[in-house]
């Protein structure tokens, strides 16, 4: 995307007198194109996609707003979003990361615990959003296991049915029927919803800054499970978190693998490949 197009996007939210000085592509994203922009009105982070996915960016704005009300210093500030021609765009104030603080991981654990201490009366959210580029249903439920099965596991499994095959789908049904004896109920906690090592950075003071949320209210165990799936979180993170919000016995050995079926199915739908084998191996443990 050229400088002139970026400038046209910024004019939509920053005014006609904005001037772009520098544009640099930012890698690491699998869903949208991303750019860091220096301008006469400050520095911005811009994501773009096709116009039909503007509701994905709208959801991200709402997600970030929810989190900013709880941890305003650990969430980037939204500038705006919209469409221009055939593209949709999403603009944040660009974060210039500071030097990582000494107790970064412990501070991160405490920060996440403060988010998880925000509760709702039901599981889900008032609106649907996205995880990656995939729609995520947040239809509200009073029972956590019902929500997990009906709004998390089955929508992704059915979407991936042709990739997964009959054997895996049959195992999925059997495992889901066993979930009441495996999973535990808990208060609906506010969740980031897509928390892995690629979805946080540093803020100006060297503390965590959370990005790309797929927010909803759920059992907080599903969030902690996701942090273990792709690695990248240190022991100090978990130790500090558990000092505030202990995790019940059996979580790391059993329930975490069940919860990670959801992000694994998401990755099957986004990328296919070896994630199918990971789903199969997880299901075999619990059939």
What does this structure look like?
The chain has 287 residues and is an alpha+beta fold. It has two domains: 3-93, Phosphorylase Kinase, domain 1, CATH 3.30.200.20; 104-286, Aminoglycoside phosphotransferase (APH), C-terminal lobe (Aminoglycoside 3'-phosphotransferase, Chain: A, domain 2). It has helices at 3-14, 54-68, 104-116, 144-159, 161-182, 221-229, 235-244, 251-259, 261-271, 275-286; strands at 20-25, 33-39, 42-50, 78-84, 87-93, 129-131, 134-136, 189-191, 200-202, 208-210, 216-218. The strands form four sheets. Strands 1-2-3-5-4 form a five-stranded antiparallel β-sheet. The chain has a two-stranded antiparallel ribbon with strand order 6-7. Strands 8-11 form a two-stranded antiparallel ribbon. Helix 5 runs parallel beside helix 10 (275-286). The longest helix is centred in the middle third of the chain and has 22 residues, at 161-182. The N and C termini lie far apart (49 Å). The mean pLDDT is 95.
